[in-house]
Structures are given as structure tokens and as C-alpha cells.
Amino acid sequence: MSELNLILLGPPGAGKGTQAERIKADFSLLHISTGDMLRAQVAEGTQLGKRAKEYMDRGELVPDGVIIDMITERIASPDAGDGFLLDGFPRTEAQADALGAALAEAGTALSAVVLMEVSDDEVVRRLAGRRVCVKNSAHIYHVEFDPPKREGVCDQDGARLIQRDDDQEDTVRRRLEVYHEQTAPLIDYYEERDLLLRFDGVAPVDQLHVRIRATLASVSMQQRM
Ligand code: AMP
Q1: Model pLDDT for residues 26-69, shown as the tens digit of each residue
Q2: Active-site positions?
């Protein structure tokens, strides 16, 4: 296996989407964000989207079965064969088990899990001010820490910036509880499998990116040897 198959792990608001954009460019990976896939289904008004929205608006997880089917199909497609970056998946132990089984069946495996650690207070501060582009949710701003040049307008494509429904403070608190209960146990899960790489998610975006890129470059080199 020479391709990099990665997971980005961390609480909501850790900056996974921002780092994902950079890492995918560094290593030519397919970026798979379950949150983005679900939001696309909601926007299209599909059955799945309608069902998922109820959970998403409450800050709860969409049931495992739905997510697992969606992801196993995605990573089995040819464009995932040169390496992928999972962002927002897995979020439960059942999802992690299903991913491991699907990769084993495809004759491949995970290369590493990148954990971005950020405190709860920092998450609330970040998400309350987060704004995303209506056209491309990878274009992310913060009203205080990373404002666009023109208020409410995306620097990159001139589209409108909005606050995600689930970035309201109450929902953020619920998403954090869910993260601690259901997703944080994956830290031990991947540590036991010797796949976990820890990073301080509070470091400035550029610095964090340089650190992650350097570490992954050595993972990639070791894999080739
Ligand atoms: P995100 O953009 O990753 O923060 O995801 C937004 C919302 O989509 C989450 O709060 C969940 O409701 C849902 N979601 C995304 N990924 C998953 C997943 N792997 N398992 C269950 N629900 C998910």
C-alpha cells in the first residue's frame, strides 16, 4: 500500500475542514466529509436528507446504518483508490469497526489518524463566530479571528456567507456532549492500533498545517519502504 488513507479526528470546530483542504492538496487525496455529504442531501431534499436533518438540527448523530452505507460505497469507488482523507467519519466505534472491515475487504488499510485537540470553551468560541460560504462549505471564516475582506461575502468566489443552523450555541453544546460520549472513545481505539497522531488544534492554522504535513510525509515515506 503506497497511498495515504487518513482520518481527521477531533471535536466539531477543531479546524478539520480547514486542514483537510490543505492536506488533500499536499498529498492529492480524495476529501470525504460526511457532514458535507449529508448537507448536500438536505439541500437536494432527498429522503435521506430529510431524515438526517432532524438529527443534525438537534446536534445528534445520524444513525450508524445510514452513514456506514454512504461511506462504504464512497470509499469503494475508483477515485478513492489513490488515497483518501475522511473528515467527520468515523464518529462511533461501530463506524470505526465497519470502516476497518470495508478496508480489509478491499485489501487496504488505514495509514494514520490525525487527532486535532481543542478545549470545549475554544470550540464554543470558534463555532459561534464561524461563517461558511453558501457555494462552497470549504470556504470558512470567523467574524473575529479570520474575517472576510467584505462583511458577509466570501473572498474566494463572492458568494454569501451564512451561519450553519447547527452552529447556534445550544446545538454546539449538544454536539460537544455527543463528541465526548460517542466519538472521543475512538482516541483510545486508534491509539491501541498504533495509528494515532496527536496535534495541538489551538496552534495557528499555518503552523498546524506545516506540522501535520511534515508528519504525514514521513508516514508516507515509511509506507513506501
Ligand atoms: P460535521 O459537518 O462533520 O460537523 O457534521 C454535521 C452533522 O452531520 C453532525 O452533527 C451529525 O449530525 C451529522 N454527521 C456527520 N458525520 C456523521 C457521522 N460520521 N455519523 C453520524 N452523524 C454524522
Answers
A1: 999 999 999 999 999 999 999 999 999 999 999 999 999 999 99
A2: 16, 91, 130, 164, 175
